[in-house]
Amino acid sequence: GTNKNLYFNIPVSYFADLMRQYRQIYSRYIEKFIISQGRSINPETTCHWFTLVNEGFDRLLSQFINQMDSYKKQKSRQRHLINDISAAVLPLVGQIGVLPLSGQVDSNYLEFVLKAVPDQCINLEVSHLFIDMSGVLSVDGLIAEELSKLTRILSLLGISVTISGMKPELALFTIRSGIDFSRFSTAGNLKQALRNYGVKIAAI
Question: How far is it, in rounded angstroms, from Cα 126 to Cα 55?
């Protein structure tokens, strides 16, 4: 839940420093207790107590680091699965495929798209790919640059592209930045893009 996420967002350096402070507090209490007892406590017992404190805090720090590593690996696997699902090329009719982009598009997601989509198109024998951006929540220059890379890669593979649902702010950025999208066609939405290409699907 939320509390677990907050727990694992704690930097290791902060947690280690916290453990160091508590270790010092425990050590001072032991020292005060030993002093208060005079010579009734032998050196072996004193060493044993300090050893227990040090080992206890070392184990706690080690467990924290191990749990954090496990959590990060799990999150990485979840992110990979989400990317795999959300960056899937859907075969339509003939050699036509559709790639619906949606949600919060970040650099990791775009990197996954660049690697996965060309292979998917080859495996599905796609000759024309419709990339629909209607579901993308926000746009920036990174999307335009990575999208341009993807279209160039697909073009080298003999795959033509139509982009639909491009937001006005992204279109304006591409013009201002000089990114060339002349190699492919565009449309306001996926339904219009498919109609322009001659695909008739009532469900769209």
Answer: 60
Rg (CA), the chain: 29
Query: Given the structure tokens 């073009």, which residue do they identify?
Result: 155
9 membership: H or E segment, kind and range = none
Give the containing element (helix H, strand E) for 164: strand 160-164
Are 190 and 98 within 8 A, CB to CB? yes
The pTM assigned to this predicted structure is 0.56
Summarised one tens digit per residue, pLDDT across range 73-119 is: 666 555 554 444 445 788 888 899 998 887 777 777 788 888 889 98
Contact criterion met (CB below 8 Å) for 119 and 84: no
Helix and strand numbers, DSSP H then E, in the chain: 7, 5
Whole-angstrom distance, CA of residue 50 vs CA of residue 29: 11
Backbone torsions φ then ψ of 199, nearest 5 degrees:
-90, 130
Phi, psi of 114 (to 5 degrees): -60, -35
